[in-house]
Amino acid sequence: xxxxxxxxxxxxxxxxxxxxxxxxxxxxxxxxxxxxxxxxxxxxxxxxxxxxxxxxxxxxxxxxxxxxxxxxxxxxxxxxxxxxxxxxxxxxxxxxxxxxxxxxxxxxxxxxxxxxxxxxxxxxxxxxxxxxxxxxxxxxxxxxxxxxxxxxxxxxxxxxxxxxxxxxxxxxxxxxxxxxxxxxxxxxxxxxxxxxxxxxxxxxxxxxxxxxxxxxxxxxxxxxxxxxxxxxxxxxxxxxxxxxxxxxxxxxxxxxxxxxxxxxxxxxxxxxxxxxxxxxxxxxxxxxxxxxxxxxxxxxxxxxxxxxxxxxxxxxxxxxxxxxxxxxxxxxxxxxxxxxxxxxxxxxxxxxxxxxxxxxxxxxxxxxxxxxxxxxxxxxxxxxxxxxxxxxxxxxxxxxxxxxxxxxxxxxxxxxxxxxxxxxxxxxxxxxxxxxxxxxxxxxxxxxxxxxxxxxxxx
Length: 459
Known about the structure:
This protein has 459 residues and is of the alpha+beta class. It has helices at residues 5-25, 50-54, 65-75, 81-86, 100-103, 136-139, 430-435, 451-456; strands at residues 45-46, 58-62, 90-91, 114-117, 128-135, 150-157, 167-173, 181-191, 196-199, 207-210, 213-217, 226-232, 237-238, 246-249, 252-255, 260-270, 288-292, 299-303, 314-320, 336-337, 341-345, 350-356, 365-370, 380-384, 389-391, 408-414, 419-424, 445-450. The strands form five sheets. Strands 2, 3, 5, 6, 7, 8, 9, 10, 11, 12, 13, 16 and 20 form a 13-stranded mixed sheet that branches.
């Protein structure tokens, strides 16, 4: 029997209310409690109940095309990725120019095949944290956007209040391996029918560039409970005023000193309500996302984050992309985005997740990154599936399997080269560095490791 939209909405409200009450009252239970750092987390547990799937259901919201067109008309002709790359004004330092302090953040095993450090002269890197990475290797099978190889890195502003947490994206010209360079682009949210915009508040823990769309995570707990924002790579606009304001000003358009802005074209919110960051038995707060091109169809893989000092299991799940609506997630007959598969992992402190199968549509392996808590600690990269788990390497030390990079964040797999790309976040003493009492350069790198090298070091 078909139900009316009003009835479905009321039913969803009742279900959301029940889930919220249960989330507050119940003690998290899950198949098993997560293990302590360094202990093998074992196999992934598949979650199958209707309530598990209901908690991950998304609702899509699209910004009216008229609003986007109005903003473009007001600001001027839309710019392309090629124009952003051509104006790249920050050189990345190659391996030989990275400091010994920065290199300590590299993985101990396997060895990074290539790595880059950020521009010394870029004062915008000091109080911001690199969190995620995606590339033209995600966007298209041939690894190119037009004729360019491009890497995007999402950064979040570090601040004491939520109003400080702006997001920005480094567009990296990766055509010449010996000459990476980048330009910052500010993601923004259109307002009032495209007559203004505001900054996106997010640390961009995850980011996926698929076809001509860019999807990023958000921690904004606004009225729509948005968890993901969508951007169009063809809709990049240029600011006309250089000031600290973000949005419309009396004499033009400003973007806090950045030259380019990307207005969101839509978002995805949790259909049931706001996210809960204390357990994996309620609505999830999206921590990291990545693209899986080995699934059929291509899919977006997501995970949530809980402290590496705790024992709370976390969910890993996926949504399919819509083959008929490029770059958007597939919706059901009622217009909702449903999770395709849901797993629970006993690995802790997940900062990144990657799913890949050696055969198209085959059983996937999940590479999960436990960044561990504390300063100057190498992370652990586990490979898990529904049969078991293996550590990526054994290198001894305080925790035998702590061989991955220091505080490594989101991961991306460049399909046609077989390289796993990721970024590291921390400084030698990040708190001292932020307070100005430490002169050490932050241990922040962009690096690549062949996925085959990761697999060859499995124990």
